[in-house]
Structures are given as structure tokens and as C-alpha cells.
Design brief:
- The chain has 450 residues and is of the alpha+beta class.
- The protein folds into three domains: 161 residues, GAF domain (Beta-Lactamase), CATH 3.30.450.40; 152 residues, GAF domain (Beta-Lactamase, 2-Layer Sandwich), CATH 3.30.450.40; 120 residues, no CATH class.
- It contains twelve helices and twelve strands.
- Helix 2 packs antiparallel against helix 5 and helix 6 runs antiparallel to helix 8.
Amino acid sequence: MAIDHSYRGVQDYTNVLLEVAHIINNAEDIDSLLSQVGEVIVDALQAYQYGAYLFETVQQQFILRVTIPSDMPAFQHFATTLDPTDEERLRQVVTQQQPIFDIPSSPHTNQSVWLLIPLTAQNQVVGVLLIGIDHKQIPLLHNLMSLIRGISHMVAVAVDNKCLRESIARRETESDRLQEVTVALLEHRTLEDVIDLVSLSLKQLIGAQHSMVFLLEDETRLRPVISSNAGVQSHPVISIEHSQIGEAVRTGKPAIRNFTGPDPRTTDWQDIAVALLAVPLQIDTTNIGVLAAIDKPGRFTADDVRIISRFAAQAAIAIEHARLARKVEHLAVVEERQRLARDLHDAVTQAVYSVTLFAQAGRQTLATKSFEDTEHYLTRIGTMAHQSLQELRLLIHELRPPTVARDGVVAALRQRLAMVEEQVGLRSRLIAELSVPLSVDVEDALYRIA
């Protein structure tokens, strides 16, 4: 529907604006809005190509969202991303906030003209529309600038409002999800469980294909903690100084990369990662590691940085809590082993000393041919050795008997009671009714208490 300048043309002008308004009121999302408005613009201006770019704040670039024809992956004249610092015409559009014609100098494209239309809301350029037309249409377009400005203003305001509404809805969803993750993290005690949940939750929160947790090995290196949910099978220790992930530690800020191609600072899988987002794991201001998201369809955005930063704060606390719990458990094991070592030392020393005395006495009776006394001392040696053996078995059993791991705490307690009965002749009875399975830590604690 090409527009002329007669009375009928005025009606067409009004109809186009009304159609755009209808699209704005009924479009489900931003891409749908841009696509439907693009069809109206292509029809009204007799254009042959259309593309809508929106500004992405993290990379400070315009990202291609919609093309017409829709099966065209990108313009031949423009890439899927536009950088205002590199594209002179784009820089003019952003600075002047006015539509600009771009006429290619190539003889093969001298019939093509590009019209760059800024989408301006609240005095900020939130996007750019690119329209490919025949150069013969330029005089017509000069007369339609008021229509073009009207459409672009309506679209810009609508995009800005939809972005705001989507951002609010997204943040509400994020808050609910982060709260769920926080509760789940508090329920996991072991470091392995926490790492698994962190990796899985990170991928779900921002849609990354892979995720990894790196913990500080020392001041110069990061050690990967491979999770079953990471999507990465193995990875070597990496340098903090010479890696993209290490940048998060060096700066204490998120590090993001959204392009394909090698990074001269890396020598591993980061070379071929399409997208990488690394956020420091910090307790107060102390770095304990890095949370990394790898390869997201499309690219990482400002929202991803914000979400992963909030999540990293909670993940750091959970990871550090699990590490401290493991350290406390290790110290408790060390203390218990030291106690058992002392008990073993005392028991063995006393038993060996007693056996030595009886053996010396036995030798003396043999020298005097007091065979009845010799037999008495030999009997005492046998009894003492048997008692010492029973004591040693009880002490060794406390290190965590295999019965606990194999059959559970009830069977282990029954076995221990049997040993006590055998040693001291004490009769006992164990009553146990367990309706739910117990964790290893609980079974160990119950066994030691008993």
C-alpha cells in the first residue's frame, strides 16, 4: 500500500498509524511487535528488506531481533550486531536521533538505499530500524518523514514500555526462583551436593548450556569442581592472570564475552566458547572462586549479569558453609582418631607390659623346674592376650565398623553388644524401630553415642 499525497493519501497515512497502534496494543511480546510493524512498514514504503535492532546495554551494541524476509539470517550490508563506535552512519543516527539515508558506494548495490530510523524513548535511542528500498523511492520517502517519525515514536514508546513490563515480570520470577534455590541450598550439607545444585540452578536461571564452579587453588590458580550438572566432563586448573574466567577474580567484577573466536589470553575450551559469563564468588570482599556460565543461545545480556551476580552471592555462602562443615567434620575425625590412638596406645602398652612380666616369671619357674607355676603363668599370659585382643577389636570397631556401612546402625549395635556379652558376660537387649532410612552422619552419631 504505497502512500500518495492526495486526500486518499491522508486517509492511508491515518490508516497506517491506526494499524500500528492496533499492533502495539495486541502484540504478545517485543519481537512479535517489531515483526508485525515491519510488515506494515515494508508494505507502506514498498521496501524489500527490513530489520529491527534493539540496544543491549552490556555490550553497548545494537542486536538484530527481527528481519523481513524472516528467513534471512542477517543483512548483507549489516551484521547481526551493530556497534555505534564502528558504524559512522549509525553513530550519526544515535547522536542526531533523526532518520538518515545510507547509499552504498559499491556499483553492485547502486540501486539500493538503506534508511536508518532511530527508535527514541525518553530521549534515549533504544533501537534502530533498517529499511532497504530502491533509490527511486527516495523522493517519496522525503515526503513521508512525518509518517516515519510517527511510527518510530510509537514503536519506541511501546518497546520501552514492554521492556519495562517484561523486566518487572522477569525480576518477580527471578526473586521467586532465587528464593527457592536459597532454601534448597540450605538443605544440602555436603560440598558435592551444593556444587551440583549451584550448577543446575545457574543453567536454569539464565538458560546457559553449561556451567562450572571454580575454587581458588592458591593465589595464582583456580581449580574446577566438576559437577554432574555442569555439562563439562573435565577441565584443568587455570591461571587467574591469563584467563577470561580469572578476570572475574582480578577485577572482582563479572567478566563477559559474547563472540566467536579465540581469546589470545586462553589456551583451552574458552577459545571456542560462543559466550562466556564469569562472576566472582565472594564472602564479604574475599574471593573464594568463580561461577561461570558457558554458551547461551543468542548471547549473555545485562539481565543475565544481574541474575548471576545475585545468585553468586547466595552460592558463595552455601559453598563456604559446606566447606566449613567439611573442615569441622575433618577436625572431628582427626580428634576422634587421636583419642582412639591414645586408647590403643594405653591398651597395647598395658597388655604388652603384663604379658612381658608373666613371661619373665614363667622363665624363672622353668629355671627352678616349678612346672605348676609355669603352667599358671602361661595360662595368665593366654587370658591376658585374649582380653587385650577383645579390647583392641572394640577400639578398632569404633573407627566405623563395616557393618554400619553394609547393614546399618541397628545391625552394628547388635554385633557390638554381642562382643560385649562375650567379653564380660553381660546380657543385653536392643529395641529399635526405624520407619525411615537414616543418613550416614546420623548413623555414625547414633553408633558413637551408643
